[in-house]
TrEMBL record:
GO terms for cellular component: cytosol. GO terms for molecular function: phosphoglycolate phosphatase activity. The keyword ATP-binding does not apply. It comes from the Bacteria. Gene3D superfamilies: HAD superfamily/HAD-like, Putative phosphatase, domain 2. GO terms for biological process: DNA repair. This is HAD family hydrolase. It comes from Candidatus Muproteobacteria bacterium RBG_19FT_COMBO_61_10. SUPFAM superfamilies: HAD-like.
């Protein structure tokens, strides 16, 4: 098989896992706990993909560092312990990733999640062994900074032109461009098809099965 890419790097939330509703619920609950204005559904969806610190700064720009810290702690408490919203993998993700692995693609994750959160879902989904490298926003700069991708490229020894970033946000596409990596978008996440294509996505696909077919 003549492969164009050796390494496929996936965003997690909104790309592999249908976790958007839970993230939005937890963000709004955190605001209520701290007693600040509800950011609303649309704004809470739009910041998914950023690191938590950057997300709080974007959603609540007039608050001080202490208030951001309280919001962050409240959000984590809801996400890890209080909120029980189901977070399934999107259809085709489990089988698709395993098929790509059998076809000798290296797989990786670059996510705005914290390490604790990613390790938890990797364990719950039994998917940790599928990935050669993972990088989180609390280990590097938040998207769209290229550091997470640069770290993954260093860890796997793959050149940028042989890697592909798959994500659902403009932050993913900008990060890919900043790292010299190609970007492929999915339409079923949080940012619009037009925005994703405008930010450099090679294509914007509607299902994970289409993603796998496009890669192969």
């Amino acid at each position: 098989m003549n492969k164009k890419y050796d390494l496929i790097i996936f965003d997690w939330d909104g790309t592999l896992m249908d976790s958007v509703d839970k993230i939005v619920r937890c963000m709004r609950a955190a605001a209520a706990d701290v007693g600040v204005a509800d950011p609303g559904i649309a704004a809470s969806r739009h910041i998914i993909g950023l690191g938590l610190t950057e997300a709080m700064q974007a959603l609540f720009p007039t608050l001080n560092a202490g208030q951001h810290a309280r919001l962050t702690q409240a959000y984590r408490e809801h996400f890890l312990h209080k909120d029980q919203t189901h977070m399934p993998l999107f259809p085709g993700v489990d089988d698709g990733l395993r098929l790509l692995g059998r076809q000798d693609y290296l797989l990786a994750v670059a996510t705005g999640k914290a390490r604790r959160g990613l390790d938890r879902v990797l364990e719950e989904t039994a998917m940790g062994s599928l990935f050669s490298a993972t990088r989180c926003a609390d280990e590097a700069y938040s998207k769209p900074h290229p550091r997470m991708l640069e770290d993954i490229l260093d860890a796997t020894g793959v050149a940028p032109q042989r890697a592909l970033m798959v994500g659902d946000t403009t932050y993913d596409m900008q990060m890919a461009q900043n790292a010299g990596v190609a970007g492929l978008a999915v339409s079923y996440g949080v940012h619009t098809r037009d925005d994703l294509l405008r930010h450099g996505a090679l294509a914007c696909l509607d299902t994970f099965d289409e993603v796998c077919a496009w890669i192969r």
